[in-house]
């Protein structure tokens, strides 16, 4: 029996406890169940190979939603022709998918704290897959839009729960790289989705873009069911229930102090909006809004530059978008290097302040308007070689990645006890700004030109570029005056 249990453990990637499962669980001084030292049921004690595998599947689950968010970006023409709508209305599948993403931090995040990660991941991704299946054969435009909104809502589950799974598995010093890759996926995924849809538009139609999401989703679902529960309080609750079944009168700390689900949602739905207007949170959200809006504006800007102005075909005109993915990876490598430097300084005994994260944001803040001007004004003229605006877009993506990750890390460290609520409201406002961006980008750049539109964005970025410098110099003072931030 123990041999069979060990074999099954390899399939589910959850370590077999063997005969240890029949022993009385360890209890602390309050008689609550806790993990023993080296307990194989503690996710932090799982083997490195298991933790890496679960991390990889978690990243793949998030990648599905990221790619799907922009999978119709290159299909405006076929959507317009099939449903007889304007080019602006053809952007609604993207906008509604992104609006649906708001459900993640407000709905599924609290559920994962209450019921654990595993079944919320299973349920949300399976429902995302079902809704994506429906969007492949909608009876009309309304069916497509409703399906995209619901698909976005359920895709946000793995996207929001993913970071929580990484926290469950890795110590603070170990999970930095995985978190960086997870954030990078939110940049690389939409770029890939845009390119994929562009080439399907060239030979097929928008439905084939949705088929691509279904193919990826089918592969992911098979791997998803190998993910075990990683939420320690949920695992301890299961251990306590097993102990009671065996005749031991024990409970876990989570069972004793478990809030009601209604109270959990009351906090989850109200606290983020209170924290939104705290100074640091508000300015970081403002900066994040501009970055996220620009990310999805670029998926309309590149076709204007390379398809409308330069006459490239629908598929090839999307290829320069890959510069965004390359730039995001460059930014990620810089972040890895900076994190390693911070770790060395911490090992030497130096205190690490939240404001240290602003160093990269200051670099990105200065580079943002410069690279935006580089991209827009070099794209304005067809006589300029195509590599010049593409390189500008790559540098722009690197700068945006540096700002985004720095702000994310800063608010996480600043609002330690309220980090989940601050991150939740940050994600919501980013999704709302991203959803609105595709609806006005084409008209804006048709009216004032590529150079003029880029200059407007660069000017806004220049005004916000002072934010990381302000936080780096006066962040401690601002934190000391906040009711929620660490002093």
Automatic annotation (TrEMBL):
Domain of life from the UniProt record: Eukaryota
Topology relative to the membrane: Multi-pass membrane protein
List where the protein spans the membrane: 53-71, 83-107, 119-137, 149-167, 179-200, 206-227, 273-299, 319-337, 358-377, 383-403, 415-436, 448-472
Q: Which segments constitute the Major facilitator superfamily (MFS) profile domain?
A: 54-477
One Pfam match, given by its short name, reads: MFS_1
Q: Which GO terms describe its cellular component?
A: plasma membrane
**Where does it live in the cell?**
Cell membrane
- Keywords, alphabetical: Cell membrane, Glycoprotein, Membrane, Transmembrane, Transmembrane helix, Transport
Q: Which GO terms describe its molecular function?
A: transmembrane transporter activity
- Regions annotated as coiled coil: none
Family affiliation? Belongs to the major facilitator superfamily. DHA1 family. Polyamines/proton antiporter (TC 2.A.1.2.16) subfamily.
This chain's protein is named Major facilitator superfamily (MFS) profile domain-containing protein
């Amino acid at each position: 029996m123990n041999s069979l249990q060990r074999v099954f453990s390899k399939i589910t990637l959850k370590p077999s406890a063997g005969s240890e499962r029949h022993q009385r669980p360890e209890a602390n001084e309050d008689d609550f169940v806790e993990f023993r030292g080296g307990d194989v049921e503690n996710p932090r004690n799982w083997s490195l190979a298991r933790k890496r595998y679960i991390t990889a599947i978690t990243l793949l689950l998030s990648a599905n939603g990221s790619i799907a968010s922009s999978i119709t970006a290159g299909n405006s023409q076929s959507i317009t022709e099939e449903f007889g709508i304007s080019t602006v209305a053809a952007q609604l599948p993207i906008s509604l998918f992104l609006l649906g993403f708001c459900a993640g931090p407000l709905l599924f995040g609290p559920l994962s704290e209450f019921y654990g990660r595993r079944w919320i991941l299973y349920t949300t991704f399976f429902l995302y897959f079902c809704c994506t299946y429906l969007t492949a054969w909608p009876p009309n435009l309304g069916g497509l839009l409703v399906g995209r909104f619901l698909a976005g809502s359920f895709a946000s589950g793995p996207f929001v729960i993913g970071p929580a799974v990484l926290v469950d598995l890795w110590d603070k010093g170990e999970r930095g790289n995985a978190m960086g890759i997870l954030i990078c996926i939110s940049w690389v995924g939409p770029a890939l989705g845009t390119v994929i849809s562009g080439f399907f538009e060239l030979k097929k139609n928008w439905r084939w873009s949705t088929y691509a999401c279904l193919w990826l989703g089918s592969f992911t679902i098979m791997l998803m069911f190998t993910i075990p529960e990683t939420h320690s309080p949920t695992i301890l609750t299961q251990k306590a229930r097993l102990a009671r079944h065996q005749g031991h009168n024990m409970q876990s700390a989570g069972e004793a102090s478990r809030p009601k689900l209604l109270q959990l949602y009351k906090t989850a739905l109200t606290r983020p909006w209170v924290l939104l207007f705290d100074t640091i949170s508000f300015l970081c959200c403002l900066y994040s809004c501009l970055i996220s809006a620009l990310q999805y504006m670029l998926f309309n800007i590149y076709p204007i530059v390379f398809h409308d102005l330069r006459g490239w075909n629908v598929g090839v005109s999307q290829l320069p978008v890959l510069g965004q993915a390359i730039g995001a990876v460059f930014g990620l490598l810089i972040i890895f290097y900076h994190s390693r430097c911070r770790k060395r300084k911490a090992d030497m005994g130096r205190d690490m302040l939240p404001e240290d994260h602003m160093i990269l944001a200051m670099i990105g803040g200065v580079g943002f308007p410069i690279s935006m001007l580089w991209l827009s004004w070099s794209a304005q003229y067809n006589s300029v070689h195509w590599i010049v605006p593409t390189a500008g877009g790559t540098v722009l993506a690197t700068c945006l990645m540096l700002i985004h990750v720095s702000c994310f890390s800063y608010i996480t460290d600043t609002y330690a006890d309220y980090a989940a609520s601050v991150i939740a409201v940050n994600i919501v406002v980013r999704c709302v700004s991203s959803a609105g961006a595709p609806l006005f980008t084409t008209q804006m750049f048709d009216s004032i030109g590529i150079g003029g539109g880029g200059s407007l964005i660069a000017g806004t970025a220049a005004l916000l570029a002072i934010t990381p410098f302000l936080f780096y110099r006066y962040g401690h003072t601002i934190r000391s005056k906040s009711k929620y931030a660490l002093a």
